[in-house]
């Protein structure tokens, strides 16, 4: 009788704690659905803080490419300097995401995200003030690239706030809306630069530095807002620090749990060929349209922004598809959907490269194929992070960081990580480079084995949404 009474009291306490929530929650208090307009605390408020914080990071990371015509004379940049800076930005993102994974597991995603935004804002401001040479520009892009490590905190936070039945959509929408920050930078930075030079009469050597106040202010504002929010988990902040994770595991135990899981490495491989392509396109698209079609800086930025804007619907669509097929077919459905969408994106990627290499390409046709390619590539990213939360609950941050980094060794000349692909693109004489080796590399999707969830060719062995 006493046990029954305690159970009733616990259930009553559970319903009282979440009585103010206008959407469903599971036994751990995680939201079972995403309702962005509800503004309920903590689920929806955490969602909005997460994507706005990452939006500022994407804006900062891609603020330089659209104003390269102004930066070249101001900093005496050669084409190779722009390439080196782009590689530095991507390298910083890769290293930062690996470190952010462990930080999220040990400190919590909220603290890790807020501190990262503030540190990157300070580093970016100092780099913008003191940059006066190509080396300074490389340092500027490196500092901006570090802010993209916030992506791991974004996905980790959503995976803690939302239940498995809705985490695919939550992860995809939070990342998709945040990715639009790169498109916003393509439009806002050229306009801000022109306003500062033409209307305020600021010299060009100073104008671009003043324009960089925009991403710095965005990073500081969102970083402080995230740190002021008290919820890492639906129940509050359960990360005490001191070298321990949410459950008290030591640092190396948390890291080992992710690094020794081969599924994390397979996800990193597949993600490198969807999100990696997206990063490269956002780095080179504005310059490509400016050189290939002789568009002015503002028009080239607007054309390049069309690729990033697709994130508002494409990546969330991937998350929705992952959850829908997951409810119907389990993990097999999630894996098959990822393979199909990413393979289609690879074919379109090849087509974009072919069209860009023609002697007289059509602007309308090139943009149409580029947008279609972006839709499938970004949807594949959403589908990938619909799988990540099921790999390891204990080391979710490490797994997210490994996946988001998307880097791997290369045993053949044509099997290149994202950074080497970036070098390939910038060495292509202004043409977009295609990757014909992409489709065969998507086959590892079938190698994911989840003991209770099955894989693409096998039936699940147990509860399809239970995490290993």
From TrEMBL:
It is a multi-pass membrane protein. GO terms for cellular component: endomembrane system; plant-type vacuole membrane. One of its GO terms (biological process) is nitrate assimilation. GO terms for molecular function: nitrate transmembrane transporter activity. Coiled coil: none annotated. Pfam families: MFS_1 (PF07690). Its main location: membrane. The chain crosses the membrane at residues 49-70, 82-100, 112-131, 209-229, 336-357, 363-388. It is found in: Endomembrane system. It comes from the Eukaryota. Keywords: Membrane, Nitrate assimilation, Transmembrane, Transmembrane helix. Belongs to the major facilitator superfamily. Nitrate/nitrite porter (TC 2.A.1.8) family. This is Major facilitator superfamily (MFS) profile domain-containing protein.
């Amino acid at each position: 009788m006493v046990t029954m009474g305690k159970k009733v009291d616990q259930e009553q306490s559970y319903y009282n704690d979440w009585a103010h929530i206008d959407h469903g929650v599971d036994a751990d208090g995680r939201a079972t659905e995403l309702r962005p307009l509800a503004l309920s605390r903590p689920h929806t408020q955490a969602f909005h803080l997460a994507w706005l914080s990452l939006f500022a990071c994407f804006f900062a990371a891609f603020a330089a490419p659209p104003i390269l015509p102004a930066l070249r004379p101001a900093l005496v940049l050669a084409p190779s300097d722009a390439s080196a800076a782009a590689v530095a930005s991507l390298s910083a993102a890769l290293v930062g995401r690996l470190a952010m994974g462990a930080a999220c597991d040990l400190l919590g995603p909220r603290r890790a995200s807020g501190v990262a935004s503030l540190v990157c804002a300070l580093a970016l401001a100092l780099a913008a003030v003191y940059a006066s040479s190509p080396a300074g520009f490389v340092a500027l892009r490196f500092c901006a690239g570090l802010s993209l490590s916030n992506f791991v905190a974004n996905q980790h936070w959503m995976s803690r706030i939302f239940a498995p039945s809705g985490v695919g959509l939550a992860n995809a929408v939070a990342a998709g809306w945040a990715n639009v920050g790169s498109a916003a930078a393509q439009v806002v930075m050229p306009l801000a630069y022109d306003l500062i030079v033409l209307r305020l009469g600021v010299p060009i050597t100073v104008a671009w530095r003043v324009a960089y106040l925009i991403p710095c202010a965005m990073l500081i504002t969102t970083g402080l807002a995230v740190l002021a929010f008290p919820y890492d988990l639906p129940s509050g902040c359960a990360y005490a620090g001191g070298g321990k994770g949410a459950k008290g595991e030591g640092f190396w135990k948390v890291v080992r749990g992710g690094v020794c899981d081969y599924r994390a490495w397979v996800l990193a491989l597949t993600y490198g060929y969807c999100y990696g392509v997206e990063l490269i396109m956002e780095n080179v698209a504005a310059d490509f349209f400016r050189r290939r079609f002789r568009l002015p800086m503002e028009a080239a930025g607007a054309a390049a922004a069309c690729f990033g804007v697709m994130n508002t619907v494409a990546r969330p669509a991937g998350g929705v598809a992952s959850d829908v097929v997951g409810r119907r077919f389990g993990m097999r459905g999630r894996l098959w959907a990822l393979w199909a969408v990413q393979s289609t994106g690879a074919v379109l990627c090849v087509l974009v490269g072919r069209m860009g290499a023609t002697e007289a390409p059509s602007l309308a046709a090139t943009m149409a194929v580029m947008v279609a390619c972006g839709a499938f590539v970004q949807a594949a990213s959403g589908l990938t992070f619909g799988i990540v939360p099921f790999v390891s609950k204990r080391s979710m941050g490490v797994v997210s960081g490994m996946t988001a980094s998307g880097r791997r060794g290369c045993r053949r000349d044509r099997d290149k990580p994202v950074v080497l692909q970036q070098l390939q693109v910038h060495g292509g004489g202004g043409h977009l480079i295609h990757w014909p080796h992409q489709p065969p590399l998507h086959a590892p999707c079938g190698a994911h084995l989840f003991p209770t969830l099955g894989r693409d060719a096998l039936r699940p062995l147990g509860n399809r949404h239970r995490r290993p």
